[in-house]
């Protein structure tokens, strides 16, 4: 049975004690043991528990463990064996194992934007490449910790990964499933993954799910993915518009979600499907994700719920990361009577030091000669056999990935290629060969002591481009006079020294270091000033043109001295003058690396792993005290010429003016640290991309109408100044001094092309933090100078006057045109809502009647219907102050004033609606009536006056002088008793007052 898989079934009867063992479907043995239930609980898999001693452990592999609650017959055993042998479940059900088309576990040490750097663990070689450089593998807090676990994960902050072309099914109705772990950082409007064709997973405005179209989302609340790691399985269905998206399915933490259309936009019928270009951490280079992701798998077709749970629980061993290569540094020229020093550094794929390396390397001269000793490092060096060229060194954590060694090579003139390697990694051979000679120049940063301290370790350090530095030379070797090894003091006088530049990284260059010439030596030593006006890693070779004696410096880095920034088209304005660019709109930035002479350093960006630049906001110039905002796509630079790197996709999220600063993209120029450039001049002024009109509402003063000039119309709206991404720009604030827009109002009736907006009166507000919020419950629409028929369903609108000619994002009306402005694309304003306006008045005619009956008075509101004034039966809202009503000379603001003394009797005014302060109307009628005073009265009549001061919407030009303003009251109305209507046969009856 050893070395092969076998099918085992064990049965035990608690009543008979019979114990049977089946192997590969056949009974192998059967014995009778103890009866009764097993009293101990199930302990473990893979060992036998021994409470009296040590447990016994199983060595091998186990799979498909099943426990049944009854005894299985020999027939059942055979059936189960045959089913599982055929790859089915034990009961014969078909099963499918989830096998990914591609899977990315992000177990690499680092990424730098090179092809195939993100490994496909699925074995199909769909490796990926990082874009925008804003993502890296991390291992601090994985989704499933431990070993096994989920190990490394990808941390995204604006970058994204694109695998090699995937062979996915793009036919209508075909399904593709993507599974992954995610830990979202809460950033709004991002896409964890997708295909860049509005067929993505999207997180926006508190929602998470599938895009249905541009702006639409079909999914669940984003609260389901907040607060830590969550496992996601997303099933995409190819098809047209929402009809296809509605077939998509989503699992979160193994639970299928109920999806709904959370962000509705007008539906389209565009065909959307997966395609060969898959974006991890983005939706086609936009909506870039911020947060962590891991274990991304792509599957052709659907997965079952159980398969998804299995994938969620999957783990794998977390292998220790290894360096990409070892870097050796030496000066390429050596004297065989002098120990040669060199350093070995473990490097990552992005050329940074792999500081956690603790492996064992082999040092090998590949010449079978040489002995090694340790110069710096806390690990263990073993040179077991003297002068065999081999040694091993074991790094420790405190070495931080780097150590230096001394090589004694006394075999005479030779060329040696030192090699360094461990079990999986070798050096990159970039150091070149090491030439041993009887004599040569020792080239150092400073003169040597005499006798010199050996090994000589005075390397030239990091330099600035365009700035002179000292190079010290010593003629070193075997003195021809005495045979001693050291400085050759007889080498003296003026020597013609040729200085050559060795380009190591980049490997070529157009500028050479300057220096050399006729150099005076004293007792074998001399110094001169060298200068390199470019950047990179170089070494300098010095040669005596007469004797050909030569020497070389160590490899050293020359950094740029500065970065200059040019923003294409920038006009540098602040609070005055023209604007530069809309907020959120891409603008172009050119950056040059400069030397200390303020000239370009052309080799910047030509490095083996090209260095680039990134931009940051140095300061907010205008408005003072505002929000500094964020700079997007700050590091997407491309080298467009020998001297210039360009980024055409930079954008700023706010409005105002800023200063920028450039620095090294990875903050570490060839391992020597960051260089920050001179701050730019003012860049701006950035202005809003557009204005968004929202929360708009118009409400009539009285349900479905408002009197012309009545100040009880309610209008509310919010204007938001937004960037190109639709986010509010908070610096658009009058309190900060930003030049803000004003509003113009419009009104049109039945699209007649006559803009009545000047008649609309509203309160004003102020722009604050990018918003103009207005809530006016006392707006009005003024009367015209003449009678006016009802303005039914008058459309009210708004436009924006901005110094940068920005407009509303959605324009739906043009009050100056009777065309369909949407079709003609001539709309100039946005809609606020509709209201209806009446030309109204208050009337109370004189009236009379007998003293024995109640006297009705027609106190009512009317409106002009285009032909005549008619009762406003819609008016249940108007109020007349009691203090404005005078009855028989008494102001009706106290209860006693309702009663009129008629000498011999009295009459009392009554109304439909009477409060302590006001008289109301029902259906346009106040219901005014006076009670019967009785036959004993001697005073027959009295006057009623109503003052309409401050209620001009109910006034009328009663005196017909063409001026309504001076008619501040209705004509006096006389109420008369003891008057009767005449006989029906009387043609004319006149009563003389």
Automatic annotation (TrEMBL):
Organism superkingdom: Bacteria
Residue span, DUF6701 domain: 503-990
Entry-linked Pfam families: DUF6701, Laminin_G_3
Protein name: DUF6701 domain-containing protein
Organism expressing this protein natively: Candidatus Endobugula sertula
Taxonomic lineage of the native organism: Bacteria, Pseudomonadati, Pseudomonadota, Gammaproteobacteria, Cellvibrionales
């Amino acid at each position: 049975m050893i070395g092969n898989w076998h099918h085992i079934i064990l049965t035990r009867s608690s009543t008979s004690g019979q114990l049977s063992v089946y192997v590969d479907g056949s009974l192998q043995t059967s014995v009778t043991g103890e009866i009764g239930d097993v009293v101990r609980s199930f302990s473990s898999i893979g060992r036998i528990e021994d409470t009296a001693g040590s447990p016994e452990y199983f060595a091998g592999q186990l799979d498909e463990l099943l426990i049944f609650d009854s005894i299985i017959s020999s027939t059942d055993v055979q059936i189960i064996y045959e089913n599982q042998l055929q790859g089915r479940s034990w009961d014969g059900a078909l099963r499918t194992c989830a096998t990914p088309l591609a899977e990315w576990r992000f177990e690499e040490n680092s990424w730098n934007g090179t092809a195939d750097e993100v490994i496909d663990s699925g074995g199909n070689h769909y490796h990926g490449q990082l874009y925008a450089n804003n993502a890296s593998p991390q291992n601090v807090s994985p989704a499933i910790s431990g070993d096994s676990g989920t190990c490394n994960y990808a941390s995204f902050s604006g970058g994204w990964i694109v695998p090699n072309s995937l062979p996915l099914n793009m036919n209508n109705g075909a399904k593709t499933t993507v599974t992954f772990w995610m830990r979202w950082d809460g950033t709004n409007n991002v896409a964890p993954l997708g295909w860049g064709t509005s067929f993505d997973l999207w997180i926006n405005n508190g929602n998470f799910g599938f895009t249905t179209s541009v702006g639409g989302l079909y999914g669940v609340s984003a609260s389901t993915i907040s607060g830590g790691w969550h496992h996601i399985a997303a099933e995409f269905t190819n098809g047209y518009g929402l009809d296809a998206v509605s077939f998509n399915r989503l699992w979160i933490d193994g639970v299928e979600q109920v999806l709904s259309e959370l962000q509705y936009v007008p539906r389209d019928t565009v065909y959307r499907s997966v395609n060969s270009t898959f974006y991890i951490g983005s939706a086609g280079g936009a909506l870039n994700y911020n947060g962590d992701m891991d274990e991304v798998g792509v599957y052709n077709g659907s997965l079952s719920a159980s398969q998804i749970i299995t994938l969620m629980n999957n783990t794998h061993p977390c292998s220790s990361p290894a360096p990409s290569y070892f870097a050796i540094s030496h000066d390429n020229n050596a004297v065989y009577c002098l120990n040669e020093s060199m350093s070995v550094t473990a490097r990552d794929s992005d050329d940074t030091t792999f500081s956690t390396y603790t492996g064992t390397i082999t040092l090998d001269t590949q010449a079978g000669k040489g002995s090694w000793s340790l110069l710096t490092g806390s690990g263990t060096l073993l040179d077991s056999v003297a002068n065999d060229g081999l040694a091993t060194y074991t790094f420790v954590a405190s070495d931080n990935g780097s150590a230096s060694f001394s090589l004694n090579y006394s075999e005479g003139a030779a060329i040696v290629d030192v090699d360094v390697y461990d079990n999986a990694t070798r050096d990159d051979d970039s150091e070149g060969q090491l030439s041993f000679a009887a004599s040569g120049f020792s080239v150092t940063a400073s003169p040597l002591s005499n006798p010199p301290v050996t090994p000589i370790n005075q390397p030239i350090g990091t330099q600035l481009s365009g700035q002179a530095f000292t190079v010290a030379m010593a003629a070193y070797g075997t003195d021809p006079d005495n045979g001693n090894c050291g400085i050759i003091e007889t080498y003296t006088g003026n020597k013609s020294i040729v200085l050559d530049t060795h380009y190591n990284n980049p490997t070529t260059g157009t500028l050479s270091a300057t220096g050399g010439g006729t150099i005076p030596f004293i007792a074998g030593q001399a110094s001169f000033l060298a200068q390199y006006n470019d950047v990179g890693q170089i070494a300098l070779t010095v040669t005596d043109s007469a004797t050909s004696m030569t020497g070389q410096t160590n490899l050293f880095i020359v950094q740029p001295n500065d970065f200059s920034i040019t923003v294409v088209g920038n006009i540098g304005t602040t609070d005055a003058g023209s604007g530069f660019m809309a907020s959120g709109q891409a603008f172009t930035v050119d950056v040059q690396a400069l030397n200390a002479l303020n000239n370009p350093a052309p080799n910047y960006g030509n490095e083996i792993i090209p260095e680039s630049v990134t931009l940051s906001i140095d300061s907010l110039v205008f408005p003072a005290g505002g929000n500094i905002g964020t700079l997007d796509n700050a590091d997407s630079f491309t080298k467009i010429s020998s001297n210039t790197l360009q980024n055409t996709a930079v954008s700023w999220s706010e409005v105002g003016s800023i200063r920028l600063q450039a620095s090294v993209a990875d903050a570490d120029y060839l391992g020597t640290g960051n260089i920050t450039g001179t701050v730019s001049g003012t860049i701006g002024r950035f202005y809003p991309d557009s204005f968004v009109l929202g929360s708009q509402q118009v409400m009539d003063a009285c349900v479905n109408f408002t009197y012309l000039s009545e100040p009880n119309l309610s209008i509310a709206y919010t204007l938001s100044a937004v960037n190109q991404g639709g986010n509010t720009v908070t610096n658009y604030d009058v309190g900060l001094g930003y030049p803000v827009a004003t509003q113009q109002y419009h009104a049109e009736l039945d699209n007649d092309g006559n803009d009545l907006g000047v008649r609309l009166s509203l309160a004003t507000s102020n722009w604050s933090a990018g918003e103009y919020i207005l809530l006016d419950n006392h707006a009005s629409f003024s009367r015209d100078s003449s009678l006016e028929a009802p303005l039914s369903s008058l459309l009210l609108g708004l436009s924006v006057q901005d110094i940068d000619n920005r407009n509303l994002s959605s324009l739906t009306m043009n009050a100056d045109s009777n065309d369909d402005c949407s079709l003609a694309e001539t709309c100039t304003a946005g809609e606020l809502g509709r209201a209806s306006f009446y030309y109204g008045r208050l009337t109370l005619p004189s009236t009379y009647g007998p003293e024995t009956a109640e006297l009705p008075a027609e106190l009512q509101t009317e409106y002009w219907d285009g032909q005549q004034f008619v009762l406003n039966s819609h008016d249940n809202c108007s109020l007349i102050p009691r203090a404005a009503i005078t009855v028989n000379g008494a102001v009706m603001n106290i209860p006693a004033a309702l009663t009129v003394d008629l000498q011999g009797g009295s009459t009392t005014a009554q109304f439909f609606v009477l409060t302590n302060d006001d008289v109301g109307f029902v259906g346009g009628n106040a219901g005014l009536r006076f009670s019967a005073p009785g036959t004993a009265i001697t005073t027959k009549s009295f006057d009623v006056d109503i003052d309409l001061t401050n209620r001009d919407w109910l006034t009328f030009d009663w005196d017909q002088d063409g001026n309504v303003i001076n008619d501040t009251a209705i004509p006096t109305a006389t109420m008369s008793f003891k008057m009767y209507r005449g006989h029906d046969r009387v043609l004319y009856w006149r009563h003389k007052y």
